[in-house]
Amino acid sequence: MLRALGLAAAAPGWGDTPIGAVVLGPDDAVLAEAANEREKRGDPTAHAEVLALRAAAAVFGDGWRLTGCTLVVTLEPCTMCAGASVLARVDQVVYGADDPKAGAAGSLWDVVRDRRLNHRPRVTAGVRAEESATLLRSFFRARRGL
To answer: What does this protein's UniProt record list under function (predicted)?
Structure first.
């Protein structure tokens, strides 16, 4: 999570929300990492999780299955990112701060544990949650001029 927090802290430098993600392989080695780049790329899908999952898939497994891998992210994944983690077949999602407005790993929705889907990653929530939340609060306060 410390690595994801470091990535998140860099994102405001290019105008993006401070969210960082790291994909760990079955041996806990870092396969890929990313920060949000929606503003930087002009791409609504350039969330940290999606970028990290794409990069990990390019170097691990059969090209898209991330079986045995863990997605670590500073903020609870949204529906798109939660869905991507299910589709990528990650074994576990670890996140920092809850997202009561858009979280899809238990807060607002629970996409990752939906029994109707064919894969359900384990979820560990609240890892370094206060540090993740502090980054986000600082970012939005600065944007709002508070």
So the answer is: Catalyzes the deamination of adenosine to inosine at the wobble position 34 of tRNA(Arg2).
Q: Is 47 annotated as a binding residue?
A: yes
CATH of range 1-128; options 3.40.140.10, 3.40.50.1820, 3.20.20.70, 2.30.130.10: 3.40.140.10
Q: How far is it, in rounded angstroms, from Cα 53 to Cα 90?
A: 9
Per-position pLDDT tens, the chain of length 146:
999 999 999 999 999 999 999 999 999 999 999 999 999 999 999 999 999 999 999 999 788 999 999 999 999 999 999 999 999 999 999 999 999 999 999 999 999 999 999 999 999 999 999 999 999 999 999 988 86
Contact 29, 50 (CB under 8 A): no
The H-or-E segment that residue 124 falls in is strand 122-124
Best CA proximity match to 69, nearest among 98, 33, 105:
33
* Catalytic choice (33, 37, 39, 49): 49
Task: Report yes or no: 108 and 101 within 8 Å, Cβ to Cβ.
Answer: yes
CA angle, residues 126, 128, 133, in degrees to nearest 5 = 85
49 carries an active-site annotation: yes
